[in-house]
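It would be a great kindness if you could assist me with a short task in structural biology. I am sending you one protein, given as its amino acid sequence and as whole-number tokens for its backbone shapes. I would ask you to consider whether the tokens describe a fold that such a sequence might reasonably adopt. The full record is reproduced below for your convenience.
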Amino acid sequence: MTCAENQVDEQIAGQGGREAVLAREKIIPQPQWPEPREIKADLPAAPKFDASALLPEVLSDFVMDEAERMPCAPDYIAAALLVALGAAVGAKCALKPKRRDTWLVTPNFYGGVVGDPSQRKTPAQNTALQFLDRLEAKESERLEQRTRTYEAELAAYEAHQAALKATMKQAATGKGDSKKMDAAIADLQTLAKPEQPRARRFKSNDATTEKIGDLLQHNPHGLLVFRDELIGLLSSWDREGREGDRAFYLEGWNGTSSFSIDRIGRGSLFLKCLCLSVFGGIQPDLLERYLSSIAHSMDNDGRIQRFQVLVFPEPVPWEWRDRPPNKGVREAVRDVFDRLAGFDPVQDGAAPASEFAKLPHFEFDDAAQALFIEWSTTLHRDWMVRETNPLMQQHLGKYDKLFCGIALVLHLAGGNVGPVQVESALRAAAWCEYLAGHARRIYEMVEAARVSTARMLGRRLAEGKLDDHFTARDVWKKTWGGIKSTADAEAALAILEDHGWIQSYESQDHQPGRPTTRYIVNPSVRGGAA
């Protein structure tokens, strides 16, 4: 092509005649356009909540009664109740899933409820967590009496200490009083200062990791961190200067590991056993954005996969209901929490802690052991192998702990002693299948976000916001919502092309090197809407 021809082409292009130039070069495709298909992404249906399969009768009756009266999805109450029961036990004891290995599992869980603000997430959570609030209130009452006893014992200690020091001073000024001095020294060494009483804590609503560390020093069995808006906690782990918080919570999920906190001005804390439970509510759109940020970055460290008791049920229609609670059910659940807060695991059949097993621990009975081995084998050799979503595969990889934790908590909540029986193991397997259905529904939100972005872009193209022969960079430069990079634009364009809305082609654009990918819009789309 001559220089003059190039100048003419540039002039035509400048006047909006790029199509004529490209057509002459036989670059623009002349497709037989298909009928554009609707762009939609339906989330998988939420699994049905089967109370009788998942919970012992007393817990099942409580969940269904509260959910029916509210009304709300029973999934919300059941998930909060399971996590609260696990927090009541915490690191007081563990389950040893293997007969010869020393692996221990504590029944602490991370979880939450997903739903719009109108779905009564907060009342549902509070219904289950009220039992931990009651335990803390009782501990506060006990603390008053224990404090009075402590103050009296401290006064006696200080009086004995002062008398011994006076004796030592007198012996030091006299001659031949070495025996008197030695006796005073021996008495002073055996004098024990009374320990200041502290109320056992079961729950904290909003605290820094440093403060939680302080609480855990006096609460070695762990506690529940409850956040009504869970996204606030998740976002705090990414703030500048709080990088250590994420590691703290990642380790706290394990339930059996030690942890050191070192801060200038605060000194050092060493926790022999860092055991945390976490629960809260989150809106679907906020969770969708959070999941998308993880899926599209190198920042996937398994933190969201630890939230295994996370439920996203279908909305429950509101209607007016006003009837009294089922008599005796709430009181029975209250008694379960009282028993778990004060029981002695060794007296109930747990093996005592040892040098290599730091916590008292239960084991499966023979039938439950065989069930767990079969279930775990299927999990690792079948479910995880067939799973195509990386986030879901990683999520399933943590289900051994979930199974064992649920089995132990249901065993103890049922008032059982001795080995964990097959009934509790069967319920744990049912919980895992149920929660896996919710996890798939939740992780599918990442794909739903891509489709939502494609729908938005489709509407813009239908409205003529971009002329034909545009590029992904042209889309990105529009700064439309959901498209923060050319990669986001390319992903949305790929969905549109797959649905017959656009077609791509490669053009050199008179430039040497790699060709540019351009797009033209299906004529039947113009003037329509996604």
